[in-house]
Amino acid sequence: MPLWADSNLWANSIEETVARLNGQLESSTETASSYRIRSANVFGIKPEMLKILGKNGQVADVLIMFANKGDTLGMKPARGNYPSMKEYKRAKKEFTEREKQLTKTIKAQNDQVESSLKALLGNYEKQRFGEGKKTREWVKTWRWSSHAILLSEQKDDSLCLRIMPLCRADNRGKTQRVSDEDKKAEVKTRVVHRDNGDVIVTNIPMVDQGRKGYCVPSTWARYLQYMGIQVDEYVLANAAQTQKGGGTRSDKMLAAVAPIVKKNRRAIKTVKARVTLNLVARYINKGLPLMWSMYSVGPFKGYGRPADRMGEQSPEAWKKALKKDRKAAKKLKIMPNRGHTCMIIGYNPKTDEIATSDSWGMRHAEKWYTVEEVQAVSKDKLFVVTW
User: Are residues 216 and 346 in the same domain?
Assistant: First the structure.
């Protein structure tokens, strides 16, 4: 795999590096970017996911996920997703077989990667890596030139290879903290006011959860990265004991992320209230998105309405055009097995709309719904990372 062009990966342009690897853009903000590498071979193994992260135009990190309970297993089959009982049973059997083999697969791949790295770089050092009690991992570390190569085997959960600058590894992956005042000023600059009345938080990193039930860890990873706290969805999924086949309890995720947030002198505020424009505006105006628990039914299963939804219409005309959708929202039926977590990232007081963002790729980064639609599917439980 042509990852290195020379002996210092961190001096390389992110665009030139991903061009060599045929990477596809996953996320782009003013200062950071990430790319997925779809076809790669690492020590004779095809990774489940390979991501290259950039900062200020240069390579910053490499994340290589081998076998893991998310990508390897996928979503646990649900009867409603299959046209016949026969197909459902076959999918369920295949899932069960993958689940039975997962621990063995992780162990076999770990042995293969470890022996390959030993042959190249000698023996490893063992160290603890990461912030927070539940998100720290034991890793095997090799050092070469300005690079640290960290192999993390989490039994029954995942096998991960991370490549990062030596300084980050020596600092155990701790985030370089930004002061409260600087961070408050920074996130306020992320709020955009559009001529049509939209007020929206921008520059939120995208994490595409793919075909696995990682909406909670992926969305929390996006939010924490937006707040300057570096952590990925796989670490959070392991720490919060995300189930094989998908599903994460919010209390377990809070227990996992709270220590990281506290170490960075931030706080998590729980808001139990009906979602209204005034409630949303209170936080969006400060540049703070809201983690939102809801049911993904009706219009929320698709792409929603895009940012350019009004076309040439005025906000007043668009508001009238939404009348039938507001009326239809009253007929939306809650489905307990369709629980979902995403972010609320904006609002429009002229049209009574709310914007959300899902961890399903850039096409889902900004989607608009009427207040009535949001209220119809809401669990009325939100979280905000604040001071």
Answer: yes
For the chain, the farthest-separated pair of C-alpha atoms sits apart, in whole angstroms, at 69
Q: What is the mean pLDDT of residues 281-295?
A: 97
Are 151 and 84 found together in one domain? Answer: yes
Compute φ and ψ for 102, nearest 5 degrees.
Answer: -60, -50
184 and 264, same domain (yes or no): yes
pTM: 0.94
Indicate whether 1 belongs to any domain: no
Q: Which residue reads 């049973």 in tokens?
A: 89
* Dihedral, 25, 342, 258, 159 alpha carbons, nearest 10: -50
User: pLDDT tens for residues 218-232?
Assistant: 999 999 999 999 899
Specify the higher pLDDT residue, 184 or 175.
184
* 368: enclosing H helix or E strand: strand 367-370
Q: Calculate the alpha carbon distances from 293 to 12, 191, 358, 383 in Å.
A: 40, 23, 12, 9
Of the residues 170, 192, 209, which one is the last residue of a structural domain?
A: 170
Extract the tokens encoding 286: 């400060």
Written as six digits, the tokens of 230 are 């570096």
Which tokens in the block code for residue 158?
A: 């995942």
Strand order in the sheet with 58-68: 23-28, 32-37, 49-55, 58-68, 158-165, 147-154, 137-144, 125-129
Give the confidence band of 178 by pLDDT, cuts at 50, 70, 90: confident
